[in-house]
Every structure is written in C-alpha cells, then in structure tokens.
C-alpha cells in the first residue's frame, strides 16, 4: 500500500483516479478547494482523507504534506478554460493558477520532512497547438491560446527546476478525456445529454480531428507512469493516436442515443478552430511504460451514454453537472 495525494481530487479525472487508487489498496488523500462541487466523490467519505484548502495557501499545503507524507503526488488541479477577456485577466489568472501554484507545490514537497518519491502532473496535447500532427513529445510547442501557453510554461518550468528537486516530476500530456461524470461544459458529454433529451445542438467544427481517450484508459496511463520510475522532466503523451472527425463522433453519439439526426447541426468546414488535427504519437508510452489505450471509441461512447442515460436527470432543475453557454462548447483544446 502506498500513500497517494491527488490535487484536484473532486474533479473529473481526479475522482476516477481516486477510485482506482482505492481499488488498488492505496491510502488516498485528496486536496479539494473550498467551494468545489464534491458530487463525484461524495460516496467516498470514510474511504479517502480530504484536505479542504486552496492550493495557493502555501501554509496549508505544507501542513497537508507533513500530515499525509505522500509517496506519490498526482497534480491534476487545473483551471477550466475561461473565455478570453480584453484586459487579459484570463491569462493573468491562468499563469497564477498554473505556474505559481506549481512552484508552491514543488517547494512544499521538496522541503517536506519526507519528500515524495515521485510526482505526476497533467498537461495537455493543447500544448502542441498548431504544430504538425500527430505530435511526438519532442515537437516544438506552438500553443494557440493562453491555456496552452500556460501549460507549456509549467512543463518547461518543471524541466528547469528538476535538478533542484529530490524527486522526479513527470508530465503526462493528456488527449481529450471523456467518460462518466464529465462536465457538460465539454462538447462530447453536452452532445450526449442533448441527444438523450431530444434537444437541438450544433457541432461547430465538424471536420476537426480530436484524439479522445476514455477515462479508464487515461487513469491507467497515469498509474503506469507513477510506477515506471522514469527520469525527472520526462514528458509522455497519454492518448490513443487515433483522431476521428467531430462529425463522425457526433454520428456515433446519435446512433447510440437513438436521437433524431436532424437535431444535430454542423458548422462550416473552414478550419477556424485553429487546430484541425489534435492527435498524439503514443510510441513512447508503449516503449517506456508498456501501456496503450485499449478502449475503442465506439465502446467508450456506449459506456458513457449508458451512464448519462442512467444518472443524468435531464428534467430536474438542480442538475449536478455544471454547464456553460453553447458558445464555449467547441471541443477545441
């Protein structure tokens, strides 16, 4: 049994990772920001140890690490993408939450009475931006928005600080993760719920290709990274290497939900999203970890639709899953 600490423990990926760690017999500590929706982990009370504080509080963070003494830290806490503001406040907030919080976590972990043995942090294929797809890890990043740039900055900061840290920090660049309990702020779960409800929807960039990885596969990749004892600063793509068009994804969802195909409209095929092909090269994960995604998209969508069909009360006004405006549901990184 190992002691595991997960930041962003109430989030989509964090909650699934917590369950997987519990199933493996580990002691699981979760850092949860006050005010966060804890619906996804509410049934884990008594099984996990919760630490309720904001990661920007370095004092609280040091106390947490001293108490938990984690052997492995999964740093998953990340801000959701925000609308771009003319005063660049979105970029300022993002740099504070992505980079300054990371520095605080690295500092607290490095100076803890018992530093962790390893840290796994999640980045995104969005870091590659408009670079030529598919993306191998050595690709020169070309982020197209502040979100991608913030993640690139954090990734390179880790590499620069690695020689000063008593533990390795590994970056997992995730493809677009989907599955049960994902917020309908994202295109795929929103489209599922719209189809199940018989409501109209639009896929704004239907010919864009997206590497979609089922949540169980993503969690499996993260766990394999933690056990691999890789050198600090290593970057690994965790994806499928397969990128269907969003039109094809929509058609699979329509077929699985039994929705009227005319309810789903499609935007122009002008490539205006900025990243027409969002796809990882996954050879390094296979070679170093012996890992590859094993859930075909069609199978993952069957399981995802089944979960929403069973759990999402579409007609209730107090839906537990957060939503955003249709304008934000683009599916783009």
From TrEMBL:
<dbReference type="InterPro" id="IPR036291">
    <property type="entry name" value="NAD(P)-bd_dom_sf"/>
</dbReference>
<dbReference type="Pfam" id="PF01370">
    <property type="entry name" value="Epimerase"/>
</dbReference>
<protein>
    <submittedName>
        <fullName>NAD(P)-dependent oxidoreductase</fullName>
    </submittedName>
</protein>
<comment type="pathway">
    <text>Bacterial outer membrane biogenesis; LPS O-antigen biosynthesis.</text>
</comment>
<comment type="similarity">
    <text>Belongs to the NAD(P)-dependent epimerase/dehydratase family.</text>
</comment>
<feature type="domain" description="NAD-dependent epimerase/dehydratase">
    <location>
        <begin position="4"/>
        <end position="239"/>
    </location>
</feature>
<dbReference type="InterPro" id="IPR001509">
    <property type="entry name" value="Epimerase_deHydtase"/>
</dbReference>
């Amino acid at each position: 049994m190992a002691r595991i600490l997960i930041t962003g423990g109430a989030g989509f990926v964090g909650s699934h990772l917590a369950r997987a760690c519990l199933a493996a017999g580990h002691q699981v500590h979760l850092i949860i920001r006050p005010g966060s929706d804890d619906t996804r982990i509410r049934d884990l009370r008594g099984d996990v140890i919760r630490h309720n504080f904001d990661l920007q509080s370095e004092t609280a963070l040091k106390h947490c690490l001293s108490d938990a003494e984690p052997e492995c830290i999964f740093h998953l806490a990340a801000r959701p993408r925000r609308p771009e503001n003319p005063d660049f406040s979105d970029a300022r907030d993002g740099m504070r939450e992505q980079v300054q919080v990371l520095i605080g976590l690295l500092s607290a972990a490095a100076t803890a009475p018992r530093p962790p043995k390893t840290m796994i942090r999640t980045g995104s294929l969005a870091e590659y931006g408009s670079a030529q797809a598919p993306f191998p890890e050595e690709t020169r990043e070309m982020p197209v928005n502040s979100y991608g740039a913030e993640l690139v900055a954090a990734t390179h900061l880790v590499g620069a600080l690695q020689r000063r840290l008593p533990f390795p920090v590994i970056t997992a660049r995730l493809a677009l993760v989907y599955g049960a309990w994902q917020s309908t702020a994202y295109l795929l779960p929103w489209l599922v719920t719209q189809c199940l409800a018989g409501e109209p929807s639009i896929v704004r960039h239907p010919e864009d290709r997206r590497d979609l990885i089922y949540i169980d596969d993503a969690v499996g990749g993260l766990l394999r990274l933690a056990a691999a004892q890789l050198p600090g600063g290593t970057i690994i793509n965790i994806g499928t290497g397969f990128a269907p068009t969003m039109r094809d994804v929509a058609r699979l969802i329509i077929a699985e939900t039994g929705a009227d195909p005319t309810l789903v409209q499609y935007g122009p095929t002008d490539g205006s999203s900025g990243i027409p092909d969002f796809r990882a090269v996954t050879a390094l994960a296979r070679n170093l970890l012996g890992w590859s995604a094993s859930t075909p998209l069609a199978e993952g969508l069957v399981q995802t639709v089944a979960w929403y069909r069973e759990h999402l009360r579409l007609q209730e006004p107090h839906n537990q899953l957060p939503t955003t405006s249709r304008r934000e549901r683009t599916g783009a990184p």
